[in-house]
Amino acid sequence: MQAADAGAGGAAGGAESQDREGGHGLHGGAGAATAAAGGAPRVTRAQHAPGPGGDATSTARRPESRLHIFVLSVPFPSPLEAEIAHGSLTPDAEPHRGAVRKELTVIGSVLAVRWKAEDSRLLRISIINFLDQLSLVMRTMQCFGPPVSR
Amino acid sequence: FLPGDTARHHRAVILDLLQEALTEAGLTSQDVDCIAYTKGPGMGAPLASVAVVARTVAQLWNKPLLGVNHCIGHIEMGRLITGATSPTVLYVSGGNTQVIAYSEHRYRIFGETIDIAVGNCLDRFARVLKISNDPSPGYNIEQMAKRGKKLVELPYTVKGMDVSFSGILSFIEDAAQRMLATGECTPEDLCFSLQETVFAMLVEITERAMAHCGSQEALIVGGVGCNLRLQEMMETMCQERGARLFATDERFCIDNGAMIAQAGWEMFRAGHRTPLSDSGITQRYRTDEVEVTWRD
Predict the structure, then answer these.
(1) Which UniProt keywords are given for this protein, alphabetically ordered (chain B) (predicted)?
(2) Is the CATH number 3.30.420.40 carried by domain B3-70+255-289?
(3) What's residue A62's pLDDT?
(4) pLDDT band for position B292 (50/70/90)?
(5) Same fold: B3-70+255-289 with B73-253
């Protein structure tokens, strides 16, 4: 977890200072340093479903609505740690459940989070709250990890 | 308290606090049997901030998780500290007002507020009169009430087994400025009158529950339980019934982490486990939703 130590602090700080306006990409992760060693960190972009007459690949169900999608990929030092983060961050229900939906999955050592929302303000609030919680989980792992062997 | 600010505070201090607790106890993670945390009720963001840490350490250390009901935390700590065996419980705080009695594996709610908690009523009254929050509005109301001389008539709102406080609050918000301006009474008189009225209501519904249950013990828990006048009035009622009153001091009346650990330990001993999938926090969590398998 030593590599994650510098990485976690940096990644959390980096994630928070990233510009979120206009759907810029955001990357974060406990293992930013590890990711740098192992490969490039993944940067993902928010996609806006365009209105009428827009992109054929848009995900809007009704022409009048704009469905915002935001995807975050968080690398961890191991699949177990990604699973632990998933276990910690999934159980609490989203406050505006109807308006904002998010889905967490683990793929290898990566925690993938996918948001869908019609209201961009609520989406932004949800992302900010999630990042605060994610940062706390990562700091907890730094202080009290690594996980004991099963 | 604003939920966002409170959550931010918890996130900032929790890890140091956890480390400090382990160090002070001279324990390591291996010595820990289980992780108890507050599942609810309460404010969402602060509850969630603590819950994620509980889930994370439970998984890191591979220990069982116990989601505890906050109200039951108060009851179990009250029982432990006072030695009361099967009391009728008056749980009174800024967020809750309930009369609870144990029956057949549930903490049954016999009576409660139908609107705001008594502590909330006292705090908002303090704000109207611009009473200081240091150390707490309730404490300052209690001190001022001792200097009150005149009993001002206030609405008395017991509704069967339940109580209501928002009416009294609106009345006093309305009347206070007028009465103070005309010199009809002093702020101390209002503090005195409010306490006498709301505490008498609480004593009445507690007594009603004790009569229903044939109970010989009463226990006061929650922050408002620190109030000595409330304890005095409850004691008078208990003596009249030949019952015993149990109360704790401010270390254990007011919300504390140890009470969650105590209830968690009882649950753990009785075989309860909270699976991760079930561990989500909940702002509304009724005291009688929990199966109290650790008591007969």
Answers:
(1) Acyltransferase, Cytoplasm, Metal-binding, Transferase, tRNA processing
(2) yes
(3) 53
(4) very high
(5) yes
Q: How confident is the model at residue B155 (pLDDT cuts 50, 70, 90)?
A: very high
Which residues on A lie below 8 Å from B45 (Cβ)? Answer: 129
Contact (Cβ atoms closer than 8 angstroms) between residue B40 and residue B47: yes
Helices (H) and strands (E) in chain A, counts: 4, 4
Q: How far B3 CA lies from chain A's nearest CA (Å)?
A: 12
- Copy the structure tokens of residue A30: 């406990």
Average pLDDT, chain B: 96
CATH superfamily of B73-253: ATPase, nucleotide binding domain (3.30.420.40)
pLDDT along chain A (150 residues), means of 10: 36 36 39 34 46 42 74 97 98 86 97 95 95 98 94
pTM surpassing 0.80? yes
pLDDT for the residue B227: 97
Lowest mean pLDDT among A36-45, B147-156, B264-273: A36-45
Token digits for A28?
Answer: 């974060």
Dist CA A54 CA A34 (whole Å): 39
Do residue A136 and residue B44 have CB atoms under 8 angstroms apart? no
Minimal C-alpha gap between B53 and chain A (Å): 6
A132: chain B residues, CB-CB within 8 Å: 7-8, 11, 49
Distance CA B139, CA A51 (A): 59
% pLDDT > 90, chain B:
95
What letter does residue B187 receive in the DSSP assignment?
Answer: H
- Tokens 């005195």, residue? B192
Scan residues 8-47 of B and list those with Cβ closer than 8 Å to A: 8, 11, 14-15, 18-19, 29, 44-45
Cβ within 8 Å, pair B57-A146: no
Domain boundaries, chain B: 3-70+255-289, 73-253
Question: Looking at residues B66-70, what average pLDDT do you find?
Answer: 98
What ranges make up the beta strands (E) of chain B?
Answer: 35-40, 65-69, 88-92, 97-103, 106-112, 158-159, 162-163, 217-221, 244-247
